[in-house]
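A quick aside before the break. I want you to see a complete sequence-to-structure record at least once, exactly as it would be stored in a machine-readable document. Don't worry about memorizing anything.
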Amino acid sequence: MKILEINTTNNSYPILIGTNVLDKLNDKIIGYDKILLLSNKNVGKLYKDIILNNITDKEVFYFEIEDGECYKSIDTCMKIYDFIIDNLFTRNSLILCLGGGVICDLGGYIAATYMRGIDFIQIPTSLLAQVDASIGGKVAINHSKGKNLIGAFKQPKAVFINIDFLSTLSDIDFKSGMGEVIKHSLIDSTDEYYNFLLENYRSILNKDSNSLISMVEKSCKIKKSIVEIDEFETGVRALLNLGHTYGHCLETMFGYKNISHGEAISKGIIFEALISEKLGLINSAFIKKLYNIFELFYIDCNPIKLLEKPMLTILKKDKKNLSSNINFILFHGKKLENNSVSIDIILDVNKNIKNHYVKAVIDIGTNSCRLFIAVVERKDNELIIERKLLKMLEITKLGEGVNKTHTLSNEAIGRTVSVLKKFYEISVEMGVTEIKAFATSATRDSKNKDEFISLVKKEAHIDITCISGDLEAKLSFSGSVSIFNENILIIDIGGGSTEFILGKNKEIHFLKSFNIGAVRATEKFFKNENYSDENIELCIEWIKANLSELSDFYKLNFKLVGVAGTVTTNVSVLEKMEVYDTNKVHLYELQKQDIKNNLNLFLSKTLEERKKIKGLEPKRADVIIAGNIILLTIMNILKKDSITISESDNLEGGMIYENLSLHC
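That is the input. The structure line, written in tokens, reads:
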């Protein structure tokens, strides 16, 4: 066991590092009337009982939150305050923070503010928390406009670092912690710690206990040396913020999701190195050295090009700024300094990030509009989806009545423009630098499509490309093809058309868009909710007639793959999803009998009753019956008893397409 003692102006406390440190926990909780053990659901189920079994003769209360940076909020604080107030916690009570950085920051903030301050002990379970969040007494919660904007300085009574906890960390969480470890090695200008990481990277990646204990101890010593000099961050302690100005900006823009803290900080370190190079403070060889150590630990440290205005807005709100300046920790050779950087320099560095940027794709369909935001990488003259950030769907019914009038109604246009304005605003907030929007069959079939496209440009600032059915099919194929190695037939049942794409890898053998769709079929056969046997049979015959050229496809060898709303809705209804879970839907094997059962369920209820079915989007309730009839008829034609669901469709395809060149 390693023991470090941190001595600050008002407090001294030990950091215990090893594999048996929890044996000493009872020694540090003597004299408290009540104890709150605070954790999250993931950590709690692994380690709650271990902590409770190490506590004797104490009244311990347990409070658990959901896992995630987004729960480090004032709303979560209020729930915890309510709990400890209801259970009569006093100034002589104690909080044990069992978890990663979120729990350490949140629990410390509760301790700092409840009754103007009670004691707390940190029991960090992630590498990030063991080397950073649990040490030094900076406690905080997030605000929607910035990370850690609401906080305090309060030192813990002790820190118990159990290295064994790291054995259950995911690769993502371990790499997140390594981002902070590498940061500490760069703060140490002697290169001793940096060289230790280079020499021991294999054993560290293999999570060898002795190597991890040495590594964590070295990080804690570096942070200890700085905190003891500058407890309240008025001088040298600011150096611990290396990478954090840009890193926090990324976390805020991405809604504290889809990027780990350590990876964001790693990108921030490179961003600050690029500023330093721009100012002539370091050379390209130094930056290459930084890239090398991040790559050694499989950490993506490439900065991401962001939309300038929202990026600057967040950077200006960073808590580390003084006055109106934007402060970064910059490299001056091997040394670091806290410097104010001009906006021109920041924007120039951001502009010159060529191969990683945030992109949005919008699919304007007959029944719905969908938004997909991702970080893309340009590699070997191709675009690759590096990180999925957000998917949204809004029912707009743009194609309502187009079947009969061939005109988009003013009401439908109004609904769609309103949603597209919302999508644009979200894209701006998330730093999107490129928006690709494509419209499909409803717009394609309308006489007033040009007026609609012009209005969207004027009101929502989005350029729409009206694409052909063939290109729509190609986008769906491009989105799914990387997931499957075998020959696949993709079907994409939309509101106004259904696309079929047969192929393998990047080679397409058959591609066609047919004018059958859930909205089109509903308007043609099922007016006023008349789902009689006769109307259903007429619809089936209509589908068969339109798909007659597929009659011999059943003889071919392929996996049937379904994308988009009809097939995914069947899964969400089967699984009774209150909140749509893309991970459960993706690659789900949907059986024909399940689709039949869902269809019978839908037919047994009125429209208003269908809207209440768990897992069925209420605004999709009026077209889902026609969608299921189309799906079942297709499966009968192809003689397939199951279909594999893919969540990668034309949105993913649009994300990697450089130019939507096939217009309608």
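Two observations worth writing down. The radius of gyration is 28 Å. The mean pLDDT is 93. We'll return to this after the break.
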